[in-house]
Every structure is written in C-alpha cells, then in structure tokens.
Amino acid sequence: xxxxxxxxxxxxxxxxxxxxxxxxxxxxxxxxxxxxxxxxxxxxxxxxxxxxxxxxxxxxxxxxxxxxxxxxxxxxxxxxxxxxxxxxxxxxxxxxxxxxxxxxxxxxxxxxxxxxxxxxxxxxxxxxxxxxxxxxxxxxxxxxxxxxxxxxxxxxxxxxxxxxxxxxxxxxxxxxxxxxxxxxxxxxxxxxxxxxx
Length: 197
What we know:
It is built from nine helices and four strands; from the N terminus they run E-H-H-E-H-E-H-H-E-H-H-H-H. By secondary structure, it is mainly α.
C-alpha cells in the first residue's frame, strides 16, 4: 500500500511591490502638498528604475506597518483647529489610495474597522502627521540605508558626464535640489508601536 507523503512544499509568501507602494506614497504626498516627501519618493522610484530593482515587501510586514500607522494616527488625535485634518477623512484617503490598490485584505480590514469605530467622532489630526507616517512607511521599505549609496553612485555618474555620458533624465535635479533635506525623526514616534517583524 502506498501512502501519500505528508510533506508539503512550502507556500510562497505573498509579496507587495515596493515600486507600487512608493508610487502611491508619492501620489498622496502630491495631494497633501508634501514636497519633501514627494521628492524622496521620486528619488526612490528613480533608484529602482536606474538599477532595475524589483524590490518587494512581504504582506505580513506591510500589515504590521499599517497596524503601527493606525496606532500612531489614533494616539495623535486632536481637537479641530485651523490647520488640522479630519481623522476620518485621512483614514479613508489611506484606505482608497494606499491600501486598497495594494490588495492586502488584512490591512484593508484593519483600516475599515478603524473607520467604523470612529463613527461620527469629529476628532482630527495635525497636518504634519501625514508626512511623518508616510515618511516612516517609505523608510521601512529600506531606502533610508540606501540613499547615501545612491548619492555616491550618481555623483560618480556626474563626473563621467563631463565626458559626454548622459544621466537619467530628471534624477540629478531631484538630488541636488534636496541634498540637504533631513529625514523627519519619526522613529521616536513609531518604534514603541512597531511589532516584531
């Protein structure tokens, strides 16, 4: 009598395209006029295009990051003022233009549940919070550690450009216009909430 082997091939872990994630971050940054974040996202996209990277992030990690963002948003609620942004409006924007396009059912369920919990609550959030949480999400894809390397590579290309080698269109203007931008110190806010990935 033959028995079927109980051993099963390991399932492939679901992945999210970092290119898609960063592109959505860039779009939201444009909507909220977050120029610094938009430029960082553009730089990250340029890096992936230049080096032909197909970087991915596991859905599990993405879900954990979204849970952390939701905690941060909830803990930074404020009363309405002249510059604040409605909490519910922000969550719906993230739901429609960040999470839903990336097709993470768990993350979509988490933010949908949070929107239902808010109900008719009129709490709002500081306008600076949006840039900080999206910047954190961008850094979490691994680009913070790679930007310096990318700068060095582009500077080498710039030296070679004197001999007539063409640089990628638009990349150098982004680099030089933002060379002295400092990443917001968002780790102090987010690290306490980050689950172990």
